[in-house]
DNA sequence: CCCTGATTCGC
DNA sequence: GCGAATCAGG
């Protein structure tokens, strides 16, 4: 695969949208994320964030001060978006504000979970929520990176595994990790 | 472990 | 110019 105009354009678009190099590569197909990153750099549009560059002032001060008058260098300006191809029928409706993935609803103080032997109702709610979006995989479809949380009754047709992307390392997705790893405390000494 | 982007360097 | 390998975080 080569970098055709279309592909480059898609690359630019996605990169601009904040897509990761791997996602872009997947979308384009035929290239690896490395290829994408390499291209991104060659295109000169590496840093996507403008306000997060703290102390990394990578400046190439090479214009020899001694040099009286080398060739004119009228292109110190940021070459992010040279020009707008008139092809676009309408202006981009892209709000400058980057859309942050704010899945967390409101500011939850997130209690220190003292002696919570119960699963937080919040976590449970999350699970119910998630199970609607579950991939509903069968045992054989599970992989290293799919949530292995079982849902339903194994003795029924209505049984499946969550299948969502697992929380790195763990066997379950974020929601299920929440209910899987209980404080483990009570239950032990049930009265009898 | 898996994922990110950044860089290097032979092709 | 290209991108695998590698580096450096998270």
TrEMBL record:
Q: Would you say which domain of life the source belongs to?
A: Bacteria
InterPro entries, per the entry: GcrA
**Compositional bias (Low complexity) spans?**
83-106
Region described as Disordered: spans on this chain: 41-118
Q: What is this protein called?
A: GcrA cell cycle regulator
Give the species. Ruegeria sediminis
Question: What phylogenetic lineage does the species belong to?
Answer: Bacteria, Pseudomonadati, Pseudomonadota, Alphaproteobacteria, Rhodobacterales
């Amino acid at each position: 695969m080569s970098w055709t105009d279309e592909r480059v354009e898609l690359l630019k678009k996605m990169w601009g949208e904040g897509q990761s190099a791997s996602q872009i590569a997947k979308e384009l197909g035929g290239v690896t994320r490395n290829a994408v990153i390499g291209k991104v750099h060659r295109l000169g549009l590496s840093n996507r964030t403008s306000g997060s560059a703290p102390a990394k002032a990578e400046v190439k001060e090479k214009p020899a001060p001694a040099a009286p008058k080398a060739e004119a260098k009228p292109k110190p300006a940021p070459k992010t978006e040279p020009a707008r191809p008139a092809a676009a029928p309408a202006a981009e409706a892209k709000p400058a504000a980057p859309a942050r993935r704010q899945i967390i609803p409101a500011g939850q103080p997130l209690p220190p979970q003292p002696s919570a032997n119960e699963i937080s109702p919040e976590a449970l709610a999350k699970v119910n929520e998630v199970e609607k979006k579950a991939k509903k995989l069968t045992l054989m479809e599970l992989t290293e990176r799919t949530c292995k949380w079982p849902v339903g009754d194994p003795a029924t047709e209505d049984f499946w595994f969550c299948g969502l992307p697992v929380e790195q390392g763990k066997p379950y997705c974020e929601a299920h990790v929440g209910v899987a790893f209980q404080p483990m405390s009570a239950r032990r000494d049930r009265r009898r």
